[in-house]
Amino acid sequence: MADKIKILLAEDERMLSEILCDTLRDRDFEVVAAYDGEEALDKVRATSFDVVVTDVMMPRMDGFSLVKRLRAVGCATPVLFLTARSATEDVVKGFDVGGNDFLRKPFALDELIVRIRALAGRTGNRPTEPTSYTLGRLRFEVEQKVLRSEHEQIQLAAREAAVLARLCHRAGQVVEASALLEELWGDDNFFNLRSLNVYISRLRRHLAAEPSVEIVSIRGVGYKLQLR
User: Fold this and answer.
1) Torsion sign over Cα 226, 223, 121, 128
2) pTM beyond cutoff 0.70
3) pLDDT, tens digit, for every residue of 119-177?
4) What DSSP designation does 119 have?
C-alpha cells in the first residue's frame, strides 16, 4: 500500500480547519494543522510534507508571505492556496511567489482532494510518457521538473511542469484547454482557466530563448507545442 499523502493545512478559521482535517483523515490523508502563517512556517521547517494547503488571509503571516519564505529557503513542496480572492493580480502574485494552484472558497471537498492528489503526483491515472523531452537546445526532465539549457537550469512548479509535459507528449497536436483543466485541476471552470493561462505565459517566458519552440494558442480551443 502506498504511503499516505502528508499535508500541512494552514487555516485560521478553526471550524473550517477541523472539518477539513476530519474529512481528509477519513479519506486516508495524514494532516497536520496550523492556525497562522508563523506556525505553518515552523512546522514545514521541522517536518517534510507532500503538499501544503494554505489560506491566503491569515494572522501573523499571510499565505503569500509564507510561501515566499518557504521558497527562499529552498523548500519545493507543492502549495495549494485557499482563497476568497479571485482577482487576476492575486492569482499572478500567488504563482510569482511560488504557489502551484488556487482553490476559491467556497469549494467542494472532493475538488480539494483531487487538487491535493494532483499536486502530490498521485492521481492514479497519469499518462505514460517519456522521462525527458528535447526541445531544440533545451531539455525538459519530467520527473525532476527541470528545464535545462547549456548554461541554465529552470526549476518548474509542479503544475507548470505537468502542463508542459502534456504539451510535449502531444507535440504538434492541439491540446484542448478543457482537457488540461479536467485532468490537472479537476474542473474546467473560468477561475481555473485563468490559472492555466498564467502557467502558459510562464512557460512561454521559459522557452523564449529557444526560437525553434513555441506554444501556439488555438483561439477558443487550447494550445499546441510547435517544434520547428
Assistant:
1) negative
2) no
3) 887 544 444 457 889 999 999 998 888 999 888 889 988 888 889 998 998 888 888 99
4) H
CA distance 216 to 213: 10
Report CA 39 to chain centroid distance, whole Å: 22
What lies within 8 Å, CB to CB, of 141 at 6+ separation is 131, 132, 147, 148
Place of cell 477519513: 26
Q: Which one-letter DSSP state was computed for residue 152?
A: -
Cell numbers 473550517 correspond to: 16
C-alpha cell recorded at residue 90:
492575486
**Cis amide bond preceding 106, omega within 30:** yes
- Cα–Cα distance for residue pair 67/56, rounded to 1 Å: 10
Using CA atoms of 135, 191, 80, 41 in order, give the dihedral in degrees to the nearest 10. 110
Q: Report all structural domains of the chain as residue ranges with CATH numbers, in order of start.
A: 6-120 (3.40.50.2300), 132-227 (1.10.10.10)
